[in-house]
Design goal:
Layout: H1 2-13, E1 17-18, E2 46-49, E3 55-58, E4 68-72, E5 80-88, E6 95-103, E7 110-111, E8 114-122, E9 128-137, E10 147-154, E11 162-170, E12 176-177, E13 179-189
Parallel strand pairs: 1-5
Antiparallel strand pairs: 2-5, 3-4, 4-13, 5-11, 6-10, 6-13, 7-12, 8-9, 8-11
């Protein structure tokens, strides 16, 4: 029983390094783990920040009245933060990266704040060998309806062995305020 528990924990630890396949490649793509984790970081997602961490889980504010993730500005010009997962990829295959975002109704994006989906392609040693950026969203992002943002049918560079699929918040050169919500993220291989 103890060995089974250790294997389960090892599997959860590796969940952020998902394997390729034709189904969903992300773990906890809907931000439902941990349950009632408001303020916590979502399981299997890595949070990075160039200033201080501001974000986590919110309940029940997701697309289906469930949990979602939030990224909130720092108030530090040119700073950035995001949530990401590392996934194995195969050159020659195509990948889709999709998320649903909306401005936080209690503190919408303002001024120079901007969000974006970004894929950082990595070689076997973890060195970046390419980058693909999706369309960005800013203070014009709705506070009411969810917007689907996506990077579709993208092929990794020949030397890529893995990729960081990230949802990013940038603060730009001047004042930036607010937050955006993100939910129902997906990475699939074609």
């Amino acid at each position: 029983m103890r060995a089974a528990g250790m294997i389960m924990w090892a599997g959860l630890a590796l969940a952020g390094l998902a394997t390729s396949g034709f189904g969903e490649m992300l773990y906890n793509a809907d931000f439902e783990d941990p349950v009632k984790g408001e303020g916590c970081l979502p399981t299997a997602w890595t949070h990075y920040s160039t200033a201080k961490a501001k974000g986590g889980l919110l309940a029940p504010r997701g697309r289906n009245n469930s949990q979602c993730a939030v990224l909130e500005t720092h108030g530090v010009p040119k700073s950035g933060q995001g949530l990401l997962q590392i996934v194995h990829v195969i050159p020659g295959r195509k990948y889709d990266f999709v998320a649903h975002v909306k401005s936080d109704p209690n503190g919408p994006l303002r001024d120079h704040a901007m969000g974006q989906l970004v894929i950082e392609w990595l070689n076997e040693t973890g060195r970046e060998v390419g980058r693909t950026s999706g369309e960005s969203w800013d203070a014009s992002l709705s506070r009411v309806g969810w917007r689907k943002v996506e990077i579709r049918r993208v092929r990794p560079p020949e030397r890529a062995a893995q990729a960081k699929f990230g949802i990013h918040l940038f603060e730009g050169d001047g004042e930036a305020e607010g937050a955006f919500l993100v939910d129902d993220v997906s990475v699939t291989e074609r």
